[in-house]
Write a structure and sequence with these properties.
There is one protein chain. With about 425 residues, the chain is an alpha/beta fold. It has a 7-stranded parallel β-sheet with strand order 4-5-3-6-8-10-12, with helices on both faces. The chain is globular.
Length: about 425
């Protein structure tokens, strides 16, 4: 959903555009699953356990809302700057850039990224919003960020740029020329450029629809398009709905949705491919990803094998933890008898939806209890969210109803239906 905020810079061409994240998280556990939903969907489980590339890991330049140094991002974060000269930390209240960085290269504290060895150069392209507001950006920020990423090449070995920020507002002719020039300079430095296709069904949005930019749509675990994803004019799909990710404080969350995450995942994969096969040109690397797709969805293992990297696939596969590869874990110790488990209904303070953000606030929550929310929409699948905190925030399209219940020690409270107030 588009996110707008009062313009911090009053230029004639100011763009108050949409951050693509439809962060729809639900707590998955204390640590990342050894094989994430997205890795399984893209046949990429091996990549998180692959040996180090002989020439070292290359970098992804992430053009986003900034990146915070949480446990999943800190090991690979080699630079965090901002176009406006301010701090490179994440200025989005929902930590859009930090979540995308972790999806691409998280080390497994909160989420196991596409390639945990990934190096990340973060360029904040958004402004610093007023408290509680969403950050905004202009079309100029796209090409200025590409230029900045390109200048990092010597020290960071950047192989790809990912832009998970979309807009529907067309550029002026001068802006279009400047963008094309920036793309050409990046290509001359052997850098590929990917962008999230947009979270509205239909044509790919800016800048993903521009020449020289690879448009990444969001797909599900069954190689089908996510119902919110742009689909006309795509390069390929990458996992982007119901995926594992982190929340705003770096904890393990599941069920994230967005072409932002899809492009970040694809960016991590592309940089890995270029790192293991450094002689590949940018177009050849993308060509392997594209030629091995299934119904337009990337198959990472197939792409690596097509590029002559079957030994990397085999080594990574052999290193996957046995419980993740199919051996069942030991059974948990028996819990208390069901009769002893009584869970009260949720004590709800408010449920609101404002500018694409759903907020569920509880008056109280017992220790050890977990709130489980089912959000329905006028069209499409329901969304399942969960938290152990008093407040849950998730980026969603306009919701219809909220069904809430509490669980603890395997028992569940009665379900309550709550009216969602739109502000």
């Amino acid at each position: 959903m588009p996110r707008t905020s009062p313009p911090a810079r009053t230029l004639p061409t100011a763009i108050l555009a949409a951050l693509l994240l439809a962060a729809s998280p639900a707590v998955a556990g204390a640590t990342s699953p050894p094989i994430t939903v997205q890795a399984a969907a893209a046949n990429a489980a091996f990549l998180a356990y692959a040996p180090a590339p002989p020439a070292g890991a290359k970098a992804l330049c992430l053009v986003d809302s900034g990146v915070n140094a949480v446990p999943d991002t800190a090991p690979g974060l080699i630079s965090a700057t901002a176009l406006d000269g301010g701090p490179g930390t994440d200025v989005d209240p929902l930590t859009h850039g930090t979540i995308d960085a972790a999806v691409a290269g998280g080390t497994g504290s909160g989420v196991l990224g596409a390639w945990p060895q990934l190096k990340i150069v973060s360029v904040r392209a958004t402004d610093v919003p007023s408290p509680g507001q969403s950050p905004s950006y202009q079309y100029n920020d796209y090409f200025n960020a590409i230029e900045l990423c390109t200048r990092f090449v010597g020290s960071a070995q950047i192989a790809a740029i990912d832009i998970p920020l979309s807009s529907k507002i067309p550029p002026t002719p001068d802006q279009s020329d400047a963008f094309t020039a920036a793309v050409n300079r990046a290509k001359a430095n052997s850098i590929s450029i990917l962008a999230g296709a947009g979270n509205d069904p239909g044509p790919v949005q800016l800048p993903a629809n521009q020449p020289g930019v690879f448009a990444v749509g969001a797909g599900d675990a069954n190689n089908a398009a996510c119902d919110f994803s742009a689909s006309t004019g795509l390069t390929f799909y990458a996992p982007g709905c119901g995926i594992d990710q982190i929340n705003t404080v770096g904890e393990t969350f599941c069920c994230g949705n967005g072409t932002s995450q899809a492009s970040a995942f694809a960016g991590g994969v592309l940089v890995a491919l270029r790192s293991y096969a450094p002689a590949l040109t940018p177009d050849a690397a993308v060509g392997y990803l594209l030629s091995t797709t299934h119904n337009g969805h990337i198959d990472v293992a197939a792409a690596f094998r097509a590029a002559g990297l079957g030994a990397i696939v085999d080594a990574g596969t052999a290193a996957i933890p046995k419980t993740a590869a199919g051996t069942p874990p030991p059974p948990p110790p028996p819990g208390p008898a069901p009769a002893a488990r009584r869970v009260p209904r949720p004590s709800v303070k408010s449920v609101t939806w404002h500018r694409g953000v759903l907020t569920i606030a509880l008056k109280s929550i017992a220790k050890g209890a977990r709130l489980r929310a089912t959000i329905t929409f006028a069209h499409g699948k329901s969304l399942h969210l969960t938290t152990t905190h008093l407040r849950l925030r998730a980026r969603t399209r306009a919701p219809k109803t909220a069904q809430l219940r509490l669980t603890r020690d395997g028992a569940s409270s009665a379900t309550v239906s709550v009216r969602i107030k739109r502000r």
